[in-house]
Amino acid sequence: MIAHIIRRILSVAFTFIVVSIIIFLMMHSVPGGPFDANDMPVSEAVRAKMMAQWGLDQPLHVQYLNYMWGVLHLDFGVPFQSPGETVVELISRAWVPSLILGGSGVLIGAPLGILLGMAAALNRNSWIDYLASTVATLGLTIPVFVTSMLLILIFAVWLNWLPASGWPQPNRWILPIICYALIPLATYARYTRSAMLDTLNRPFVTVLRAKGLSERRIIFQHVMRNSAIPLVTVFLPMFIGTATGSIFVEAMFRVPGLGAYFVSSIEVRDYTLQMALMLLITFMYCLAYLLSDLAYALLNPRIRTGGTE
Amino acid sequence: MTDTTAPVSASGQRSPLWFAWRRFLSNKAAVIGGTVLGILILMAIFAPLITPYDPEAQSFLTEALAFPSATHWFGIDNLGRDFYSRIVYGARVSLTIGFTAALFSVLVGIPLGALAGYFGGRIDWVIMRIIEVFSVVPPLLAALLLGAITRGGYGTIVFIAALFGWVQVCLLVRAQVKSFREKEFVRAAQALGASPWYIIRRHLIPNSISPIIIGFVLSIPLAMMLEASLSFLGVGVPPPTPTWGQMINEGIDFMFFYWHLAVFPTAALAITVLATSLFGDGLRDALDPTLKGR
Amino acid sequence: QTTVVAPSGSTAGTYMDYMKTVYDRGTGSELLQIPIATFDKEFELTPMAAESWSQSEDGLTWTFKLRSGLVWSDGEPLTAEDFVFALQRAATSGYDFAWYWDFAGGIKGWKEVTEGTADVSTLGLKAVDDLTIEVTTVAPKPYFPSVTSLWYPVPKHKVDELGDDWALDVANIVSSGPFEIESWEKSNNSVVFTKSDTYTGPWAPQIDRLELDPTLNAPEVGLPAFLAGDADYSFLNTGQVPVATQRYPDGIRKNAVFATSYISYDLDAAPFNDVNVRRAFYYAVNREELTTTVLKDIAIPAGSILPPGYPGYNPDVVAQATFDPEKAKQFLADAGFPNGEGFPEVEIWYREEGGYNGAIIPAMAQYLQAEFKEVLGISLNIRALPGPEWMDGLRGKKNNIFIAPYEYDYLDPSNFYGIFYNGGRHGYFIPEYDEIVAKADSESDWDTRYKLYAEAEQVMIDQGLIVPLVHPVTIAVVSDQITGDGVQPNSLGFTQLDRLGHYFFTHITKQ
Amino acid sequence: MPLVEIEGLRVSFSQYDGQIDAVRGVSFTVNEGESLGIVGESGSGKSVSCGALLRLLPTTAKVTAAKMTLDGIDVLKADKEDLKRIRGRSAAMIFQDPMTAFDPVFTIGHQIAETIQAHRDIGKREALAEAEQLLLRVEIKNAADVVKYYPHQLSGGMLQRAMIAMALSCRPKVLIADEPTTALDVTIQAQILQLIKKVQAEFGMALIMITHDLGVIAETVDRVLVMYGGEVMEEGSVAQIFEAPRHDYTKTLLASLHSRFEPSKGDPEAIAPALELRGLAKAYPIRRRNGFRITHGEFQAVQAVDVVLPRNRIVAIVGESGSGKTTTGLMAMRLTEPSRGQILVDGTDISGLDPAALIPFRKRMQIVFQDSYSALDPMLTLTQIIAEPLHIHGLGTSREQTEKALGWLERVGLPRSFGSRYPHELSGGQRQRVAIARALILEPSVLVADEPTSALDVTVKAQIINLLKKLQAELGLSILFISHDLSTVKSLTDSVVVMYRGRVVEEGPTERLFAEPQHPYTRALLDAIPATDPRERGVRTFLSADEIKAQTPRFTVIQTGAAPNATPQLVTIAPGHRVEAIVTT
Ligand SMILES: Nc1ncnc2c1ncn2[C@@H]1O[C@H](COP(=O)(O)OP(=O)(O)OP(=O)(O)O)[C@@H](O)[C@H]1O
Ligand SMILES: Nc1ncnc2c1ncn2[C@@H]1O[C@H](COP(=O)(O)OP(=O)(O)OP(=O)(O)O)[C@@H](O)[C@H]1O
Ligand SMILES: [Mg+2]
Ligand SMILES: [Mg+2]
């Protein structure tokens, strides 16, 4: 088990470094630089001065190594867009709303999705099943910004039940959270349905029935548990996945989260922030995969007790 | 016993495809999905024949933003273009993006997955690392970056969708091939002196048909959605080429009153994706002869 | 307590210091400071920090007398030194608006100092005493006082203490204007201002708090928030006008922004190095149709670089900008492309942005695309680029045709003509034109000046340097709770809203 | 009143293309304490009938019956409560495949305990204690540990016992055993059957034993039901069925039990061997986990065996499950790389050849795999499968290939119309025949047949063996026949190699070996063959590994001519008859 963990960590670290190099190179191959003029030319002398100030006059590999060296000390530099704070401060500040939204979105969407998926699997080919797959498909196909707009129109403008957008008061969180929740809901409904159907088709379920166990116990204890194992592997990555969803939801609901920085850091060539955000996401994904790997191993007795898959 | 189940047709040989076709036909949802998809594809191909107006011509500027009517089924957009014509032409772009990306992902994903799964070892290690790289970078962010480098556009979108679409197919095929590699029919082929490529081509890939179809079908909506998202972020296909993503994005500006500008493209996208996945599911069931009437 | 919530600013801002950066400024940074002078809603120049000004005999030196008793919000007195320091720093530290003080202000030694070839002390700027500023220009600048509407003080005592970072943090920011800062949300650059206690200048605010929220700028987001009572006014896009009009018939406000969208070229690159091609484009645009259909309610036709109502606006110039397909075809044929045959595919670049430009330019680009196809038989592709890249393309001549928007910076024709002067924004070097504009800029007789500018524009028309397209109109819906002079239309029927922030936010009240 | 009463049971499955009538009017009764055997060919509706009795069929099944009662409850009308009583309490079932019958994520103890708790109101701890007792009852020695094991940690035989323990846990009135031994080798099969009989007697249960193995029937039941094509052909007491079968199907069934074949002609010593294995060994690297430590070691699956297959002969390899039979066969085919040793085909050593050089040999040697289900590609039609060797070697046009494949389909006794079927549409026997056709289409000289008949009912088995025999004569084929079905081995092969724990422990001409087995393991093996006559039933004894070791035969130097040695070695004790023994002075 420990050897397994170490091997996984090594391969994740490898991936992380490769990705950081790719991103760094891509970032710098975007034409233009952070101090290009917006409307009228900045004098060359001034520009050179600023580039030097940020260390952008050095060769790329030096810049990369410097940056990664900083990263090793948890120093992600200072964002060009907001030089009054460090990247770490900026992210920890802007992340809070994104995390609240994304977190509650997944935590609400996932269980609902699981319930929907279960209902669909247990009532295969009934109207519940069709409803569930329609909801799942629509949830995945209608772009978030359209659902956002629809929700705002319905609940804020027409019904006037909820505020349209904004952040600090918790009642303003409701609509964006619903928007966020739709994607995990749809995805989980899909996954759960197929995982449940797979489990229901396995012979041991017949055996359980033959033993005279109640259907409830069969479903909630045995089938659920067995279906949960494959689901574990999608849970965490999905959580991270909400980070990119935040771009849309936050824009539509005026949430002061991290989302806008993903776009703006690319647009204004804010290299430090951009790199930090990309690394953050990459790191989170790596961590998520690692953790789900371990969770999978822990949940699955075949691996836990030392057998092989 | 099977003798009592399947009628032995007097004509002798039944073609496997004929049988797949039978199975497909008996799946109503799939038939509907397939029909809708077929109609969409035909509409895209024959767009000039079935649209009354040029999708890019601003022929109705004076009636701009008009609501659906008998002459303009889906109304007119803000630039005085017949919206029905634009939706129909939009199918061309969305479907091409979807299918090219899907095709590419299958073309790359299958061989790589088969290689990794069959040979294992170092090849597998390398391919798995590549896959890991792709799965830890969110496509949207990569698309934004790439879009900034290449300045966006049609090609970029197809490229990105393909770049990230193959991972799923590859993983599915790899897992499948891995589990089938140990099966005795593979051994049997080896015993007959078949080369690895022959085995991969003739045995392992056909047996992976269902993950392949799943992957193929999943990457179509992903690509279409990516186009829509990128349009929202301003890195989409440049106008005036009508694309659904672009239309949706513009449509939400008008959603307060001129609802048709958002509703029709969104519906078109949703229907296409829905039809594709129904069709894909049906196709998978039909092509897999081992799946009996479930 | 009255709080007004308004859409304003851009969602990204670095320093709350207008004199440090204009394009990356914190929202409302100009409202925090008091300019030398500013405009009221009729575009009358009104002294603010200055009490009066005078021009020397040779026209080269201006003397501004400041009001006494102005203080910074931390109690420090506001002196002439703060104003002079503001420009001295701007000239030396890479101010992104530095060009303004060169071509609009024409301050002596500015160019040399910004390019690093001369010392800052050689600048034509002097704080004679605490309340007197002397400015020397390279040529007579009769309109210089209106240029000072963008001259804000910088708290030298703060910069001495903290450097540029004084403007990064609410705790350190000091203000000299009618408002003080309470909070600043950096994620989206929204701010909360309060009425300043220390402000003694003209135009004291009538509201207690002001929230400026750039995320409300986009009408798609702003209007729902407005309808739900979260904002006090909202800009509208075409699609929203009917709903807003229906719900708030009395709340609709329009403003013809002093701005122009025009087509510009790389004059040295084919096919636009041929004047006939450019003239063909000039005649191929049906501005009337464009503004009555595609840009209904949000733009009016532009026949000149100058918008109507702007000083120097000349109807004779405007009259030449007709839609004449025959003439356009003829010019194109003369250029060797009859019916567009053989004309290369070109790509027109525009800048991605929000606000009124964001509302009109993409649609306009598509309109032009269709129009040029139909009238000239030319295929035009469209590409939207982020600001810096677009600018880079323009400056570096990386493309040959652009849609360029420009909004006035100070109220004088030299502002608009200056953007084509001696390279300027587009790298145009037209000696004939430069000569006339240079003459006009320093001419002190106003009628002669306007005539000269009209001549200069005639050169532009004859050489087809640009195609003026439209002047944007912003349309907004204002809550009936907001009253006061600020929301009353001016004599031309326009309401300026936040475009004249100092006037507007100090002339509204909320019920 | 009988415990089980079924009258006119009909079951049909609805499918895309119409419906399948799996059971068409079956009636039978079982009384308390009685054992009923159900035999019949594969797919004749045996499992479905019992599934219907417990209402375990999928929703696609349509079940009708004039009468179907279990323990006094009308099964078709049973509500939730009734079902709970029927399932487990009135009737318990032992399923065909124990490997997939347990929920992989719960411990064995938990699964037995929950069954107990579902029917009796007792606490978890007591239930677990009872589970342990039950496991002891089914002769799982380390029951205390096994309770905490997960299913994958048990071997097939242990799982089968745990399954029986679970079925017994609710003390059912009738035990339904659905082919409880097909997946097991003879010795374990015999143990399990004995166990079932024992507990049946102990608990006084009724038994329904479903099987296609007449030997199992002869061993265990009182009354027999013969099914064919969803109908009952014949019913009667065991003795009556075995002695005076009335129905034709029953007659062929019984006849196949006693078939004999002509021995091969010619003197084996005189002919050059077609295949010779010299010192062939296989060691698998294994990783053992000890807590967090992993130790690497080697597992000797096969230890230096020598096997000679003379031309046109049939040599059997028999032995317990896991003794290395398949591994030896695969090594002979170079499908598994041997660790050591040589493989001589017609005198050429092929153990070092590269894939290209192997191709000509691949045409001459073929293998029929143990598991016919996974040996056929499910995505290909039979024609494609059978023609595959031609396709790989590029022999003939595709039309010729198809034609030839169809011809072989006929030769193995399947109609040409089957050509476009898929493997899953065939019965086990049919699949075996397809696998054989594929192996023979290149007309090889050597065939390794790995348990070609293990999953078949007797009639089909007889057919296949006839076919092999015929082909041996026609093509001059030499066959390495791997099997643990000793009665077939006895009637078919020329000589026998007995493997035990990766070694050859005895080898000799078939008749001699069966008549005078020398090695204790060989004797245990022969003893485990199920009776083919109900009158021959008896109680058997089983030897443990230690007992076998202790009973290793001893021979003197004079008897064998070998050097004395305390470690066992293979010694020749008669012409062609060798046995592992300790040679003493
Ligand atoms: N779920 C199902 N759907 C369709 N057909 C089925 C289903 N289950 C069984 N059958 C069919 O019903 C028939 C009887 O099957 P059953 O399992 O009872 O055979 P069996 O006598 O137990 O055979 P075996 O010895 O192979 O176990 C077969 O033809 C089988 O194909
Ligand atoms: N790939 C492998 N890795 C490790 N051990 C293996 C492998 N393949 C087989 N073995 C082991 O080698 C031994 C011999 O296996 P083999 O399949 O040859 O047995 P067999 O005699 O054919 O048994 P059966 O009668 O059950 O088919 C078994 O103990 C098995 O667990
Ligand atoms: Mg069965
Ligand atoms: Mg074997």
From TrEMBL, chain A:
| ABC transmembrane type-1 domain: residues covered | 95-292
Q: Which residues cross the membrane?
A: 12-30, 99-122, 134-161, 173-191, 228-253, 273-299
UniProt keyword annotation of Transmembrane present:
yes
Q: Which SUPFAM superfamilies does the record cross-reference, listed alphabetically?
A: MetI-like
Task: Provide this UniProt record's keywords sorted from A to Z.
Answer: Cell membrane, Membrane, Transmembrane, Transmembrane helix, Transport
Location of the protein in the cell: Cell membrane
> Does this entry carry the keyword Cell membrane?
yes
Pfam families, from UniProt? BPD_transp_1, BPD_transp_1_N
Which CDD domains does the record match to this protein?
Answer: TM_PBP2
Task: Write down the membrane topology.
Answer: Multi-pass membrane protein
Which InterPro entries does this chain map to? Answer: BPD_transp_1_N, MetI-like, MetI-like_sf
The record's section on PANTHER family has: INNER MEMBRANE ABC TRANSPORTER, OLIGOPEPTIDE TRANSPORT SYSTEM PERMEASE PROTEIN OPPB
Protein family per UniProt: Belongs to the binding-protein-dependent transport system permease family.
> What is this protein's record name?
ABC transporter permease
| Naturally occurring in which organism (per UniProt) | Devosia oryziradicis
What does the record give as the organism's lineage? Bacteria, Pseudomonadati, Pseudomonadota, Alphaproteobacteria, Hyphomicrobiales
From TrEMBL, chain B:
Q: Where are the transmembrane segments?
A: 29-50, 93-119, 126-148, 154-173, 212-237, 257-279
Question: ABC transmembrane type-1 domain location, by residue?
Answer: 91-280
Q: Where in the cell is it found?
A: Cell membrane
Major localization class: membrane
Checking Pfam families in the record gives: BPD_transp_1 (PF00528), OppC_N (PF12911)
Lipid bilayer topology: Multi-pass membrane protein
**Keyword Nucleus assigned:** no
Q: Which Gene3D superfamilies match?
A: MetI-like
Q: Which UniProt keywords apply?
A: Cell membrane, Membrane, Peptide transport, Protein transport, Transmembrane, Transmembrane helix, Transport
Per the similarity annotation, which family is this? Belongs to the binding-protein-dependent transport system permease family.
Q: What is this protein called?
A: ABC transporter permease
UniProtKB/TrEMBL annotation, chain D:
Keywords (A to Z) from UniProt: ATP-binding, Cell membrane, Membrane, Nucleotide-binding, Transport
- Natural source organism: Devosia oryziradicis
Please give the family membership noted in the entry.
Belongs to the ABC transporter superfamily.
Localization of this protein:
Cell inner membrane
- Membrane topology per the record? Peripheral membrane protein
Matching InterPro entries, A to Z? AAA+_ATPase (IPR003593), ABC_Ni/Peptide_Import (IPR050388), ABC_transporter-like_ATP-bd (IPR003439), ABC_transporter-like_CS (IPR017871), Oligopep_ABC_C (IPR013563), P-loop_NTPase (IPR027417)
What main location does UniProt list? membrane
Q: Where is the ABC transporter domain?
A: 4-254, 286-526
Cross-referenced SUPFAM superfamilies: P-loop containing nucleoside triphosphate hydrolases
Cite the GO molecular-function annotations of the record: ATP binding
The cross-references to PANTHER family, in alphabetical order and at most eight, read: DIPEPTIDE TRANSPORT ATP-BINDING PROTEIN DPPD (PTHR43297:SF2), OLIGOPEPTIDE TRANSPORT ATP-BINDING PROTEIN APPD (PTHR43297)
> Is the keyword Protein biosynthesis assigned to this protein?
no
Q: What is this protein called?
A: ABC transporter ATP-binding protein
Q: Which Pfam families match?
A: ABC_tran, oligo_HPY
Keyword Transmembrane helix appears in the UniProt entry:
no
